[in-house]
Design goal:
RmlC_Cupin_sf; RmlC-like_jellyroll; three-stranded antiparallel sheet; Cupin type-2 domain-containing protein; Cupin_2; 113 residues
Amino acid sequence: MSYQVSLEAAKQALKKDGGQAFAELLRHGSLIVEYYAPQHEDTQQPHRQDELYIIASGHGTFMRAGERTSFQKGDVLFVPAGMKHRFEDFSHDFATWVVFYGPDGGESPQSPK
């Protein structure tokens, strides 16, 4: 198992997945680290675990439980398991690290597929 992944390796993993918006990079116990770079629209559903988004590039609006807030590179966003959320009006270069962790406590499948 790898204990480190670079931003460049994350970008390459997206290219290898044939145009997928996300790539899983690390997994250990309940921890999953993904890199997520949707194009044009974020269609994800609520997840079964708590999650952190660490914005790697770009900017836009984040909708969480009906409330909208601006985000930019370097911001960290938290979403509890099962809460509706999505990225809106994001820049063409938007990408984020996604960290899932903790017990299964949500209502929908995991991953922003």
